[in-house]
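Appendix B. Raw example, untouched.
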Amino acid sequence: MGRNTLLAAICGTAVASIYAAQPALAGIGADLDVPAPDLGWIVAAGQLGYLAGLALLVPLGDLRDRRTLIAGHLVLTAAGALVAAAATRLWVLLAGLALAGLFAVVVQTTVAYAAATATPAERGRTLGAVTSGVVLGILGARVAAGALATAWGWRSVYVVLAVLLVTLAGLVRKLLPPDPRPGRSSYRAALTSLGGLFRERLFVTRGLIAFFLFASFGTLWSGLALPLAAAPWRLSAAQIGLFGLAGLIGALGAARAGRWADAGFARPVTGGALALLAVSWPAIGQASWSLALTVAGVVVLDFAVQAVHVSNQHLLTTAHPDRTSSVIGGYMLFYSLGSALGAAATTAAYATAGWAGSSVLGAVFALGASAVALTDRARPAGRCRSAPGRPGRSPRSARRTTGGTGGSG
């Protein structure tokens, strides 16, 4: 198994532990006698654990050997999945899912490891390959979990996840080279460093783009089932899950965005992909009338989201080569908040104005991301404070490396 393939598999399996409950909510509710209004907490538990992990655990990657962290966090994620699989009460299930979500931030440690161990000339290509595993996990989990839950019950989903996570932990120890940290900093200093990123223009700009980007993404994937399950289509849950395959086509196609970023085109790629994101929504808005247009729109949207996401991470990890874990963890806070906003807002918009209202909302979020990118481009380029260069590199050479990836916005 190639290194990038292994890292992508880690990302996909870990992130699936957060989203696997979505297609099985009805079965979980019936089995544990959970009232319909409380089912949302089953999904929220993993997301809340994930948010805590982004702030508290991801910065450890700048202090400890990331290979050891990845293996350990995979095992602890598996432990949370097994607690969920064995749960006979709602609070036990929520505790297991929160534990799994907390350590599922191994995704960000894995992305940071990939960025830190790749050569500068191949960093974008590596990030594109590895983060494709994240999208595969988010979208593929819906299809796989639905099939497993239908065949063997919802508990089988978490048993299979636990087995896969433990297997991957063993492969990490066997196949990945160590990634020792200098060890000159403390955990408190790492958290302070994370907070300091929010005063940097590049970080805040790319974070805000991600916030609106994933709000648009969440608007689609948290609301699309509503018009598809309604007249005139009345699709089943399994049929609706297949739309995730359309998303995978678009997202995996955007892996080439990493090569464009390596060539210094991260900024133009961001602008073009955000334009595609906005254009995708008129087609997605036809979900009540045309499935073909909807599929086309989904492919374009997921291509655009992945292209911008890879470009953002390439610019940030290049600007901060010695604290990639902190910068990725902080960036993903914007991702999580945007995804949560999109998920919450799309159902409210649908209840008020149908799928047309949700589609307008998704397009507004897309335009918000474009506005941030245009505003940043209009501002004069300034020096961006970054971490000290690697040993043996002067600050001047570090700045030259950063500038060679497409600038600061």
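End of appendix B.
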